[in-house]
Design brief:
By secondary structure, the protein is an alpha/beta fold. Helices cover 30% and strands 25% of the residues. The strands form six sheets. A nine-stranded mixed sheet has the order 2-1-10-9-11-12-13-14-15, with helices on both faces.
């Protein structure tokens, strides 16, 4: 029988009751306390009318209740729908309508946002998690009178416990569904391929726990290790917490690493406890990773490539492979992941040629919610998941991602992968960040266009950057246009938002 997520939660609670599990600011919780609190919250959710297998939306920032609330949903047999607090009311309303969630649990600090959602969805049941003012009818108050043992429910391996909207930039809502079995598979995937957690380890979380950062919680819980949670990322506080809590592992997106390196305390920060600096989610600019390794040592850096549809690791680039010739790679396929490169017809491409990455793994999603036609596009007839990422495998088995199929630029009949151009632009000392997209052109249909943010104190012209690229890439790949901006738009989880860049450039052309 396949192990379930609920079983993993119960095992961690049973084996390490007195160890410290969660730290947030000046609050701390043992494994026993988290276990009891999550059980009480599970009963409270049932008491509000949330029945097993129904969808419950969570509108929460990182906080002391993040982990207990997630565990409570699993114990109650609910299908949780996390909502990124940085999105708009209209976006959240659409997500709730798409998933059919009838219940919303929210942080007190997001009460105004929840109220605005309620006005647009009058039938939505809304419950404050913790009422910071009156204690009122909050879910935490209701939980106080509930049993500290979990509800007795019958679960199945294929019960959906998480419906998570991806951070894709196509404009189409996609909600990936993970089950009791697949989420347990994610935990095993992390432990097998990325991090060997030990009892005395501690991981610091500053990115949102509803996405990749939160995936690490269960592996640490299962091994009796500590999870330290920040409300939001602040580079100075982050560096202080590494030293104070003796942090052994951190997970960063490229923007966070750039901010750490730019902070005045970075050079002197005590990172002696830190064994692993894990990064992923979006391409890492080569100068950033090179500077980080020069400061903190190559031996600490681990890169993963994965997707919401198949978290966390499809491939991993280990520390010993962080060499000059492999920094453009995302590593080798994980031991529990089958990987192929296929063409549009679903057939394997010839060795060495680019193709769309297709995977098959225990951590793979069950499919997108309520999206039959999209699922038919994303899964091959024999059950492989298409990633929409184009890549090539080199002779040593390392995967090199070219780009997203939807981001590819076709200019004058030639295919241009934006990331290849971005990587070259990032080599220029004046470029802080950039995003390359295709914009409409009467002659070429599309032309390569770069939106570039310049580093403080630097100067560079459009002609200089175009010339810089043309010296390093084929002429058809060079930008025909460079637009200088203050900062490149990003998605709520820190990825470059090419759709926003395209929209911005289109509006400029229109005006």
């Amino acid at each position: 029988m396949t192990c379930t997520t609920l079983e993993l939660i119960n095992r961690g609670a049973k084996h390490y009751p007195d160890r410290l599990a969660i730290v947030y600011d000046d609050q701390s919780f043992t494994f026993r306390e988290v276990d009891h609190l999550s059980s009480q919250l599970a009963h409270a959710l049932h008491a509000t009318g949330a029945k097993q297998n129904t969808r419950v939306a969570l509108l929460m920032n990182n906080g002391p209740w993040s982990v207990p609330m997630d565990f409570a949903c699993v114990k109650a047999g609910l299908n949780r729908v996390p909502l990124n607090a940085r999105l708009s009311v209209q976006e959240h309303v659409r997500m709730l309508q798409e998933t059919g969630a009838r219940c919303l649990v929210f942080d007190a600090e997001l009460a105004d946002h929840a109220s605005a959602i309620k006005q647009l969805l009058p039938d939505l049941q809304c419950h404050t998690l913790v009422d910071a003012v009156t204690e009122g009818d909050s879910l935490s108050t209701l939980a106080q009178s509930q049993p500290t043992t979990a509800p007795e429910i019958v679960i199945r391996e294929d019960d959906v416990i998480l419906t998570l909207f991806t951070s894709g930039t196509t404009g189409t809502l996609k909600a990936a569904q993970h089950t009791q079995a697949s989420y347990a598979g994610i935990c095993r995937n992390v432990l097998m391929n990325l991090i060997n957690v030990e009892n005395d380890d501690a991981m610091l979380h500053a990115a949102s726990l509803i996405h990749a950062s939160g995936v690490f919680v269960l592996p640490f819980w299962l091994r009796g290790a500590k999870t330290v949670v920040m409300r939001a990322f602040d580079p100075g506080t982050f560096l202080q917490l590494i030293a104070r809590e003796r942090i052994t592992a951190i997970n960063l997106v490229p923007t966070m690493l750039q901010m750490l390196l730019a902070h005045p305390d970075c050079q002197q920060a005590d990172v002696s406890s830190l064994r692993q600096i894990i990064y992923g989610a979006s391409p890492m600019p080569r100068p950033v990773i090179e500077n980080a390794m020069a400061l903190w040592g190559q031996h600490r850096f681990w890169q993963y490539y994965g997707q919401t549809e198949c978290p966390l690791c499809i491939t991993v680039l280990r520390p010993e492979d962080h060499t000059a010739d492999l920094l453009g790679s995302c590593g080798k396929p994980c031991v529990d992941v089958d990987l192929r490169l296929i063409n549009a017809d679903g057939n394997d491409v010839p060795s060495g040629e680019p193709g769309e990455i297709a995977v098959r793994a225990p951590s793979m999603m069950a499919g997108y919610y309520n999206a039959e036609s999209l699922n038919a596009e994303m899964f091959t007839k024999d059950g492989w998941l298409r990633t929409r990422d184009i890549a090539a495998l080199d002779e040593r088995g390392f995967l090199h991602i070219k780009d997203r199929t939807s981001d590819m630029i076709i200019t004058g009949g030639y295919n241009v992968y934006p990331r290849e151009v971005e990587d070259v632009l990032m080599e220029h000392p004046a470029v802080a960040e950039c995003s390359v997209v295709g914009t409409r052109d009467e002659k070429w249909v599309e032309v390569v266009t770069a939106a570039v943010a310049i580093s403080p104190g630097q100067q560079v012209t459009e002609a200089e950057l175009i010339g810089f690229v043309s010296e390093r890439l084929a002429s058809y790949k060079k930008p025909r246009r460079v637009v200088f901006i203050n900062a490149v738009p990003k998605t709520p989880v820190g990825k470059l938002n090419r759709k926003a860049v395209r929209d911005m450039l289109a509006n400029q052309t229109a005006t």
